[in-house]
Amino acid sequence: MTTQTQNDVQKTPGQNGARSYSGVQTYQGGCSCGAVRYEADLDLSTVGRCNCTFCTKYGTTGAIIKPAAFRLLAGKEQLSQYGREGTPNHRCFCKRCGVHCFSEGDLPELGGAFCSVNINTLDDVDPTHLTIGYWDGRNDNWQAGMRPSPWPFKS
């Protein structure tokens, strides 16, 4: 007879008390100090990690949406931005606590203008129940889309 410990059982969203994250739902989130607050309409059934140098160093996992699905509720004056020269993308973070809450950009391969919400800044979301896909941003290989395993740093 075998017994399973709780660590042996993998919860599936919607089962065993785990929340279901599929379908578009409205989520709120913000930075660590509370100065920046936002609301976003997200489908968290698949979220993404990118292997570009910035995303790798920052360690974010993002949910990509159209800008109209993102609403800044508080803290506009506390936001600062970082973006590399010559790129249409910039990361928005709290000047007070340094937490990167979201990115804004424009990539034709992602459907044009987008907002990428850092899912680690969402309230009441358990990231251990999310499916993560991987982007190859380090090699500007956006047209390949996401895949279930990480891309190598060099192709």
TrEMBL record:
Residues 27-136 form the CENP-V/GFA domain. Keywords: Metal-binding, Zinc. Residues 1-21 are annotated as: Disordered. GO terms for molecular function: carbon-sulfur lyase activity; metal ion binding. PROSITE patterns: CENP_V_GFA. Belongs to the Gfa family. This is GFA family protein. It comes from Corallococcus llansteffanensis.
